Amino acid sequence: GLATVAQLNKVTIGLIPADGIGREVIPAARQVLESLPKTESSPRFEFIHLDAGFEHFQKHGVALPEETLTRLRGECQGALFGAVSSPSHKVAGYSSPIVALRKHLDLYANVRPVASVAGTDQKQLDMLIIRENTECLYIKQERIETDAKGQKVAYADRKISEYASRRAGQMAFNMALMRDKLRSQVPASERLWQDKPKVTIVHKSNVLSVTDGLWRETVRSVKETNSKYAGVDMDEQLVDSMVYRMFREPEAFDVVVAPNLYGDIISDGAAALVGSLGLVPSANVGDHFVVGEPVHGSAPDIAGQQKANPIAAIRSAGLLLEHMGYASEAARIYQAVDGVLREGQIKTPDLGGKSTTQDVTDAICKRL
Amino acid sequence: GLATVAQLNKVTIGLIPADGIGREVIPAARQVLESLPKTESSPRFEFIHLDAGFEHFQKHGVALPEETLTRLRGECQGALFGAVSSPSHKVAGYSSPIVALRKHLDLYANVRPVASVAGTDQKQLDMLIIRENTECLYIKQERIETDAKGQKVAYADRKISEYASRRAGQMAFNMALMRDKLRSQVPASERLWQDKPKVTIVHKSNVLSVTDGLWRETVRSVKETNSKYAGVDMDEQLVDSMVYRMFREPEAFDVVVAPNLYGDIISDGAAALVGSLGLVPSANVGDHFVVGEPVHGSAPDIAGQQKANPIAAIRSAGLLLEHMGYASEAARIYQAVDGVLREGQIKTPDLGGKSTTQDVTDAICKRL
Ligand SMILES: CC(C)[C@H](C(=O)O)[C@@H](O)C(=O)O
Ligand SMILES: CC(C)[C@H](C(=O)O)[C@@H](O)C(=O)O
């Protein structure tokens, strides 16, 4: 009966608004999840509010409370993270909670789709960035010394492992196949992409021949050792020319896979191409857990004013559902968002509009 | 007498075309230097050809021959470097000659002006990127291990020193003052920049609190400890949001100072804004030596076809002169290039034209 199905589909989502506009966009995403039409197979959501962030650190001395981690692990199937403020000066003991969350929950791939909506942007693009999410300079092994002349010298370790590179590479090739399947369902006339699926490997092995050399070889071997990826093209770009080409010919890219820091930079760059960081979602994906997270920051300058664009967070809720296995609910969210964007009437100031966070959220909910 | 003056102004320039289109654009830059009108105070050039590059490595087993370094040090006051090809797979013993050159000659600041020419680009910008040029991940201290499960794990060291950060910071503030002085000579109506000079510090100290923390504090202290920079504004950007903002509001930036790798990425991104990498020059500047170098690569796909845009190399020759103290000769080159770009008739394929490398070079020489 329905009760049993509902039972089966109970999904508990941890909500971690964190700082600044995170407190406005996470409630917006929650409202959208709650407004999804209820069918026999759709999830029944429960939400729990969890703390984290720089402001939490300032009040309580800890940026990612142990309780948040424990409850995520024990009670939740997924989470939505808002945004975190960056201290404007060195703060002893502070460390970014989102970086810690990725590490503690082994969320090894950061999946960042950046696509234009027909009729809203100049450049047409439909790119999926897979950012390795656990290592590179993000391992935060740093040290500082004083040299013979009394001057400071600091070092950071950049780690690239075969293990993490392979997982990121597999995610990239799997997503390329998945996207290809979805595209084949779209009428040819409406397709931006006509070609074969492709994975572009980003690296800087002309300088970092050992670390980025390992990254490149490992990702390449994912395709070379698995015939199921035979139909997926593979190419590569040095990170500097990636940024250049992305701006000149964004339509040349399908799936882009990059080590952590390059992925961070590239995804902000791609966001500029679709008109606003307020549009770009991400999912931090592991084998057992997913955390949706808008790519934008906490935007302290507009926080608390209902000016924040909720779309990145709402799309992140869609990605969360998609990676939890609720593809049709996710598609419903994407379509509702695209509908509002295409209509172009209700938009927040980042897109040149005057609507509030709530207006945009309501408009999306109406279309679900 | 003239002979003595000519003697005094003798300038020996090492020409290092290296790979690919480097062999077309360096001769173009040489032709421009030779075509400069000769006045009593203008330099008398001598050129010596020097080897380096990936192709040289493939033939002779060395990418930067000892002789090239010795002759640069012993006979030259400056040099022009073309471009270097990146191996498409791991090549034992190969290491980038331009990175080695920067290190051996202690060329600690890479100065990269990116400006639009009125009437040629959509976005108006006039930015000077100062890229720290000796450390960060470019120290190439890498190692690889095998873990307990037989999988490879690689590490690279990222070095940030107070010493190098201060030198880069000083260059940034000095250039901000210099640009302000030059701007004040331009009629107000023609000025893109009306505001105070500004230095933007790029970092990622929300993750790399020790290394980028040291970078940020050191560059800040350059201004804070020297009253001559009181009139220069200072702000900062995280590297990811720098790339985003640069595309959204490039007019918000004057001088931008960045650690080595971020500077590499940002300058390619900025090049996309002015329409082509083929337009963007750089100078690798030390206290005793300057190497001009176009920001573009060796472009093997168009090499040898007279399709390469020589402007980046020609402007790099201008930068070389500027940093060697020949400001008026440099200005003459910049104006000739701007004239050709503004006219918009003679342009290489990267700018949508059909002219050859030689056509563009001749057109510039005619305007000198
Ligand atoms: C806040 C910061 C640590 C984070 C990152 O660099 O990963 C952010 O920029 C992001 O992209 O999620
Ligand atoms: C060729 C490469 C080593 C070099 C760099 O990364 O510095 C190039 O990209 C540049 O910008 O001069």
Automatic annotation (TrEMBL), chains A, B:
GO terms for biological process: isocitrate metabolic process; lysine biosynthetic process; tricarboxylic acid cycle. Coiled coil: none annotated. It holds the Pfam family Iso_dh. This is Homoisocitrate dehydrogenase. SUPFAM superfamilies: Isocitrate/Isopropylmalate dehydrogenase-like. PROSITE patterns: IDH_IMDH (PS00470). It comes from Modicella reniformis. Its cofactor is Mg(2+). One of its GO terms (cellular component) is mitochondrion. GO terms for molecular function: homoisocitrate dehydrogenase activity; isocitrate dehydrogenase (NAD+) activity; magnesium ion binding; NAD binding. InterPro entries: IsoCit/isopropylmalate_DH_CS, IsoPropMal-DH-like_dom. Residues 12-364 form the Isopropylmalate dehydrogenase-like domain. The keyword Magnesium applies. Belongs to the isocitrate and isopropylmalate dehydrogenases family. It comes from the Eukaryota.
